Amino acid sequence: MHTTTIHAWMTTIAESVKDRRDYLTQLDAAIGDGDHGVNMDRGFDAVAKALAAQNGAVPPGKLLTLAGKTLVSTVGGASGPLWGTAFRRAGRSLGNAEEFDGRDLLAALRAALEGVVELGAAQPGDKTMVDALGPAIDALADSLDAGEPLERALAAASAAAEDGARATVPLQARKGRASYLGERSIGHQDPGATSAALVMAALQRAVEQES
Amino acid sequence: MHTTTIHAWMTTIAESVKDRRDYLTQLDAAIGDGDHGVNMDRGFDAVAKALAAQNGAVPPGKLLTLAGKTLVSTVGGASGPLWGTAFRRAGRSLGNAEEFDGRDLLAALRAALEGVVELGAAQPGDKTMVDALGPAIDALADSLDAGEPLERALAAASAAAEDGARATVPLQARKGRASYLGERSIGHQDPGATSAALVMAALQRAVEQES
Amino acid sequence: MATVATPMKKLLNDPAEVVKESLAGLAAAHGDLVRYDAEAQILVRAGAPAAKVGLVSGGGSGHEPMHGGFVGVGMLDAACPGEVFTSPVPEQMLAATNAVDAGKGVVHIVKNYTGDVMNFKLAAEDAEDEGIQVESVLIDDDVAVQDSLYTAGRRGVGATVLAEKIAGAAAERGDDLASVAGIARRVNERARSYGVALSSCIPPASGSPIFDLPDGEMEVGIGIHGEPGRERRPLGSAGEIAELMIEAVVSDLAPADGAAVLPFVNGMGGTPQLELYVLYGEIERRLRERGLRSERRLVGSYITSLEMAGASLTLLELDDELTALWDAPVHTPALRWGA
Amino acid sequence: MATVATPMKKLLNDPAEVVKESLAGLAAAHGDLVRYDAEAQILVRAGAPAAKVGLVSGGGSGHEPMHGGFVGVGMLDAACPGEVFTSPVPEQMLAATNAVDAGKGVVHIVKNYTGDVMNFKLAAEDAEDEGIQVESVLIDDDVAVQDSLYTAGRRGVGATVLAEKIAGAAAERGDDLASVAGIARRVNERARSYGVALSSCIPPASGSPIFDLPDGEMEVGIGIHGEPGRERRPLGSAGEIAELMIEAVVSDLAPADGAAVLPFVNGMGGTPQLELYVLYGEIERRLRERGLRSERRLVGSYITSLEMAGASLTLLELDDELTALWDAPVHTPALRWGA
Lengths: 211, 211, 339, 339
Ligand SMILES: Nc1ncnc2c1ncn2[C@@H]1O[C@H](COP(=O)(O)OP(=O)(O)O)[C@@H](O)[C@H]1O
Ligand SMILES: Nc1ncnc2c1ncn2[C@@H]1O[C@H](COP(=O)(O)OP(=O)(O)O)[C@@H](O)[C@H]1O
Ligand SMILES: [Mg+2]
Ligand SMILES: [Mg+2]
Ligand SMILES: [Mg+2]
Ligand SMILES: [Mg+2]
Fold this sequence. Notes:
The complex is a heterotetramer, with two copies of chain A and two copies of chain C. By secondary structure, chain A is mainly alpha-helical. Chain A has nine helices and no strands.
């Protein structure tokens, strides 16, 4: 996979976040402050523009770092620093290589998750984006270990993220605004986990297009 | 008629204004500021209390004057000074007499209307209480001239006040708050004319009880 | 918790007591500035009546901080608040006039509403019977209402706040009765207002909105009693609303070219400051484009209709004396500078 | 008039521009106090940076007058406002820190929300990389949220206003970085808050209320982002709500017997002053009954959730130094005395 894969990934995220903007905002209105869709849309819109301004020569890792910086400087809220850190760490993990394979991608996603946990200190089950990213990464690892082709592995990862997001519904939030609601946060799907699933689905589609 | 007639009149007004309080307020909300029912209720409630505190010896005219002063000092708004002046003038017209007859009553009501017009400068058709009081007094005069008994004459006066109030619906207000609405005041019944009709109906019932 | 009669979105005890309790709370919070006479239901400037012309205003409640929030040094000496949206009674006005008279006479600032005018008239008569000189100043700055035989005349709105501040400064510096009244009248003559509502408001006594205003619509040419305005229109942008307000007041006021003005952008109670300053920006820019110099300004919710969403513009054409009096120190619960 | 995207009860142009336009309007109205840096989207105290410790705060917009209305003499040197209810980004905070640093270091007043904390953390790291000393003070005074492993910790609410005023006075008198930060932390340690909502609010971006609250119900234990509170209850009377608030803050703060306190009775934006002073009266009386002396107070809508109806109580246990710093002159768009 190359720079073009990252371009495709980011533009696909931007599109699907824009499509689901109001849905994400509604989820956040229920247990947060009703801005998550707007935040993600503003951020990935800026990312798409920033990447479009780059010439093809930029290596994949640097593009991810740029995406992360752009998110930090345009999103704000909790998701800005978290997603920003995630993509910066992923970019650092890919380094300056012109190409990357499934294993590189897995390592990058692991680095991203580590960054999110370092900054936000969320445990699995705290009802955050971590509850979608974690299972997705595990599924990706398992599939690759089982020798499945990358497309299949990413499909599994995307499905796991999707399931992980849905699995946040019965949880009581322990991090972020939703935690202020205590038990009232139970019964609602976490907006950040939901957009994390969108990010993984976009990755799958981006890679499919490539091949 | 005696002091007891005035007592009965005022307490009957107090009761019917309380019953119609919300209705009067709704009428005022449509073309005014939604306080007319509350204003009239507060005022005649105070009048009933003030009169109850008087011993029987007080002549009818003095009771009306007391009612007027009480209205001025408890109602506020436009209706306070207007109704207050009306009853003060009516009281002055009855003077210190122990008794009064239909003609005295007519004269008192005329004095009341004059007071209202002096203070408020409303013309017939301006969509005010004048549009109920005016016709009522004319009807009373006609019936008395026609030699009808007082009860019948007051029934006619009450009906005329009722009709006069209803006839304010198509009018455009030229006085009071409703005039600020210009043409938008058309199509609504004037709250003050409506309570004026209640006052006349109460008079009729009070006199009936007596006889 | 059933102490509230009609369930509603109101923070109060008994709706019938809300005005009295609020006045007591204001006096408790600002005892250094105002004293509450519960029996007369008036707010009086703390301390002995200053040896100066007294300044009294009053009207229905529900417009807070007007008038009670303007009692203090350099503004009102007393305020007589009526029930919500109901003019006070003459007894209150008389008590306030007596409380502040220092032998130099008392100015009544009266907003032009039938009820206010009649009640203040009766009070002024009583005061004069008691040998107190009273000058009544009628405020009627609302250009939404034509002054004609077919109306009760223009309503008194935003100019009231400006007249109370400026005449208050004149009284504080020692002007005599005629001068204080004259300055208040000058403010009224040089000021015009226009208001727009984006929602109605909820009088405590009824507990329900006076009118319904669907999303996407606005009432233009409103007063300050939660009443509908002259006309209902599709909701405009802040820029369009600014243009509407400015056109209405400037065309009527017809200020001199390049005149110094004071735009008073007032929130009706329920409009967030975030939005009010957007409107202010639109207004100041348009005034500049018309060659008017905004040398002073006031932005905030100072004359309100309970929680009504909306705003009004009052434009005052300044002159050097009015500007100096505006800048003079004022220390009241709601307006304070230079002190 | 279709410039407004979603029809709603809002006075604005483009919802996406409302924050920027409002900041520009505020600067236009108060150019003597604040300067708006549109590129960095920050408000900075007018004039050259004073040779003193800088005081910077910021957070999501929609809480006006906080923070922009508190920039000026004796309070904040700069404010970085984010989008409505969204923490600003590190670049804004860094720009503000650079703008106010006079070589004596800069204090960041940070409300305890995940987003605010993370973004200020990144900004502080960048500022230190640039050689600017930064002290971050975390405000977490909301007793509705227990500080436990199971939450993001207490929210920062009303104590923020008091900390900005008092620490601002400390910076103005020349205290060093550690002292200014220490005083801000002392305010936070000695203050507790509790809030109640009678309605939700309408973020401009969505154009509809965050939640529905039927008449006759209230949300207790709310924050300042239009979010639901800890619990929904039948609407209480002003007295019952006052009791609820006082019990919550006093039991947690446990002030000394007969302590001097500052009750800050704050409106959430849509509650009329008429009602707010009813609540103040109920609160001051109850504090007295508990032997607490309300030696200072603040009553008004200073930290809001747009047009939300409701109120919060912040109780600060004073000491002589905090009282003196509270009384020190302040001159900002929203808070002014002694100047
Ligand atoms: N400490 C944390 N660790 C990981 N994710 C978090 C944390 N706090 C919040 N989040 C995620 O951020 C999401 C909310 O993002 P957003 O609404 O954009 O920011 P804010 O909460 O500041 O308004 C939550 O749904 C949750 O998934
Ligand atoms: N100038 C006037 N002359 C006679 N009646 C008037 C005049 N102005 C108002 N009214 C009457 O007063 C009524 C309104 O009374 P009310 O609502 O109690 O006072 P306010 O208008 O001050 O709220 C109107 O419906 C009208 O009948
Ligand atoms: Mg959010
Ligand atoms: Mg009325
Ligand atoms: Mg009225
Ligand atoms: Mg947010």
